[in-house]
Backbone:
């Protein structure tokens, strides 16, 4: 084999390794960028990084399901629980809107209300792979509250789901 062919193969192998490493590291780089956007309050960058409508609808669904389960339990003992549901259901949208905001994202896993936790809490977020296309971000104090990131293409990521424990 000629020197040029050996050099070309070596270059291709190194390029492949570099791309693979970048693909694995890309969610960590995205997380750092997300943290920086939240800390700086950069809403334009957050709009590109977070699918807010999808996040909001998913959270509203979680809250509605939890609320319905609570009402079912209560309805066994109190026939007026259905009325209470009508009043409480109206609060789901404002609660979801408050949680799905830069201030709300910063409170993830802290147990604080949106806007009350210092934004610096996002610096402690941890990332875990679910699979090649999905990772989740959580606060070390509360691994049950998390943001799910979905791969967009080979190297891009987007926040698509938020889960919070309903207890």
Residues:
């Amino acid at each position: 084999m000629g020197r040029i062919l050996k050099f070309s193969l070596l270059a291709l192998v190194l390029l492949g390794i570099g791309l693979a490493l970048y693909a694995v590291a890309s969610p960590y780089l995205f997380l750092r960028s997300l943290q920086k956007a939240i800390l700086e309050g950069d809403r334009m960058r957050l709009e590109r990084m977070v699918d807010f409508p999808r996040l909001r609808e998913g959270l509203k669904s979680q809250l509605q399901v939890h609320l319905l389960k609570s009402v079912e339990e209560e309805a066994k003992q109190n026939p007026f629980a259905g009325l209470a549901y009508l009043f409480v259901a109206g609060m789901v949208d404002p609660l979801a809107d408050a949680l799905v905001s830069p201030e709300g994202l910063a409170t993830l896993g802290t147990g604080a209300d949106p806007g009350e936790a210092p934004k610096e809490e996002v610096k402690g977020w941890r990332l875990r792979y679910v699979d090649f296309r999905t990772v989740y971000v959580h606060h070390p104090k509360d691994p049950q509250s998390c943001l799910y990131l979905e791969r967009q293409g080979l190297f891009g990521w987007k926040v698509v789901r938020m889960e919070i424990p309903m207890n």
